[in-house]
Predict the structure.
Amino acid sequence: MIPDEFGRVVILLGVALAFPALPLLVSYLLYLFHIRPERPDPIKHETYECGVIAEGGSWGQFNARYYLFALGFVIFDVEVVFLYPWAVIHADLAATALVKAAIFIGILAFGLAYAWKRGALEWR
Amino acid sequence: MDSVGVVIAFYVLSAITIVSAASIFLLRNLVHAIVLLVVVFLGMAGLFLTLSADFIAVAQILIYAGAISVLFVFAVMLTPLASRDNGNSLYAGPGLLLGGAIAAIVVVTAFDVEWNQLTGVALEQRSFTDTIEVIGNQLLGPHVLAFEVASVLLLFALLGAIVLVTDPNNEDGTTAEEEAGKDTAVGGSE
Amino acid sequence: MSTEIFGFDGVNVWVDGLVRVLLIVGFMTVVVMGLIYGERKILARFQQRLGPTRTGPVGLLQSVADALKLVGKEDLRPRNADAWTFELAPYLVFVPVFLGFVIVPFVLDWQVRILELGLLYFVAVTGINIVGWIMAGWGSDNRYAMIGGMRAAAQGISYELPLVLSLLAVAMVVEVPSDSATGESLRGSLNLNEIIAAQAEIPNLVWQPLVLIVFFIAALAELNRTPFDIPVGESEVVGGPFVEYSGIRWSMFFLAEYAALLIMSLIFAAVFLGGWAWPAGLFQDDPWPRWAQALLVTGKAGLFIFMVFWVRASVPRLRIDQLMSFTWKILLPLMFAQVLINGLVLVYDWPEIVLTVTGLVGVLVLVMAVDRAVRHPRPRPAPATQLEGEAAS
């Protein structure tokens, strides 16, 4: 069962993991044969900041909006996953299935409308 | 279904999942922990796949590996603990204990329950090509209440997020920090 | 265990799998190099330049020269960078994109694996690379990279919703005979082969014009293409997450970007333009020979890619507040409306022309909303406590 069904997928996964390593390997071989330069230099290994020495770390507290949008994404993503089974079978079921899904979408559309009205969708 | 490939896949995926999950407790760096969390989610998706639960597996990747992990990243980026010289791992011990306790409960339950196993004719009668149709029929048929309650639950999560970020006293939706920030941090870029 | 490939019988299945995957790898590498050259040439034409001309005839070897240069460059890692995340990030960006090739239907009966949940698998797997972008941004220990990574994540997740919903809308209208019933009842499908076969006579482009446009916009955003290139905008965050990458690691990001463009174009060709089936299905019942199918798919995918380059040459970059408003306030409600209309039409057996009309009305609404936003631009909201509303220092 496995070679027919998922064997090719496993091979593809293996190649996907190996393929990015190939150019790295070539690059390393070029280094071993002294074709590729490898001249470490403290300035070269500084963090890039347009030539100025960087002050402080890169980390800063980020805007809380990022979190809000991520949460909104999770919520609507879950909704869409619930809708996929309905989308595939809906024609089998009569109008009741449509009403059920419409209620489902409607409740969340209300949430979206509320977020819009409260200005939670504004990025500032 | 129990061909050699499935058995190998089960053990490999289990090993990846358990090792990554245990490492999350031990790592000090939050971003490394999130990356391993993604590995755990992917491993679990693979385990679902070995159980022929293809829809659950894909939903696991879409929601957990794709969405929840990004949510975690953003949550972490809001805390000072995301800086790379974070030396805190105060809760490693209690975390491992709690995780071990939960794992023990799951293991005991798994061995204690009489699982219904379908074999022979019964198994063949239950065969279906894809699970999504079965799930859809169940979701919109007998379990429609759970389906609708799920949307109410999601609505409350959304409302909670809105309340969290916007200031209730301020109808134009500026954040609480902004209001506070106006007094202190005018032109304050160091 | 053996199988058949290219008319050779009795090939071992593992060999067969390996041949297929290696063919895909080769195809991808060649096409990506071609795309890089093509993009430079096409953009040059739009800007009344010549583009690359020096390497090889009309600059054809430019990509090869670039690749050689990148392999020969020093592999730098900033001193402050986090070794693990920095070195693994290119993997996490590239591998999910490459896994998307599993379901891509190149020609009839020729792909890695037919999945029943093909479309859902595609969006799920390619969505993982958002984590790779964040890793690249955080691992570099550079403010530009960090901001770029966060922007990439925020944009990627926001535009994934219209993308997923557009594919959902298409999956609904594809009518496949349900095998559980006697072939009378119909159901939607997520299986790309079934979706293509169902479009043999009329492609989805006719029934779902709005969905096609929303998919195109969302795809542009997922690919970080202009006008949605704030995560990598050279003039703002100097390359965003890749700012610290050099040489061969940087080329992996580039490869992933163009491979994603290739996959997106193939999915677009399959889902909206009928892949290998349309317009062959108009003339005869049997599909065309494989070389003609391949030509057909290449042409359709090429159309998508050309549109992407065209948009890049024509439209300026959006601000982050415009970007977020666009997806959450315009695209998402429109797609919900489209899904419900699709449901109505299918359940009550209304004539399918209703779908076309409502789709075109939706396109009109979209155009009017964009037009209104362009004519009456809202001032950028006052910055919060932080610089640019993104990073506090």
